[in-house]
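Researcher: Structure for this, please.
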Amino acid sequence: MKPLDDAYANAAYIEGAEAYPARWAQAAQRMLDDLGARAEVGLSYGPGERQVFDFFNASGVSRGTLIFVHGGYWKAFDRSLWSHLAAGALKAGWSVAMPSYDLCPDARIAEITTQIAAAVTRIADRTFEPIALAGHSAGGHLVSRMMDPLILPEPVRRRIARIAPISPVADLLPLLETSMNDILRLDAQEAEAESPTNMSRPQEAEVKIWVGEDERPVFLEQADALARAWGVRQVIVPGKHHFDVIDALENADSDLVTFLTGQ
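Model: Predicted structure, token format:
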């Protein structure tokens, strides 16, 4: 055990945590079945097998494209578990894209950031409407990094209207004191460079941070640290923990989807 292992152990403090991945996978498959030909699956944005995204087309003329980046501490999961989270934006008339990315230890976090930038750029190339970004946990870190002027081409970055980091890991230095760093392979230099809390406040996009009231204290602290660093609002969602705070993406009338789609 390392000093901060317990602080970042979400599943250990969520009742029935072990059942969530199977539940997500089933809900995601139902969404794909319902979408039929509107779901384009496994589109490439890079050379690796995991460097692909799914694109869910709006039922009519698209009002915009939401890109959702999944979490899993940069070392777990892929796009296939989250298709159901497209429901809210699709109902609001938006298209939705969900990329996978290489995982640690096969890739470093800085490399994953670059991959997501490539995915966002590829998705932007096939669309003309505004773009919104949402990411959960490690995905919250990755969508936040997209606002670094050195990451995305300026024309792409300027198309990003809104960003919602959900339960983001915004300061990566504490992760050096966790056992998971045996997989992440972070050093202090990369942790500092990859921490959104060390970035300048984004100028182009509107940002609002979401976090569950019942999350581990460290995630409340991480969300607050990013909100303070960037001078943006955060929403603390009553009764939600790290695994169910993302459920709001399924509901077009939720505050989260309303924000992302500019309703």
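Researcher: Any notable elements?
Model: The mean pLDDT is 97. Residues 109-125 form the longest helix (17 residues).
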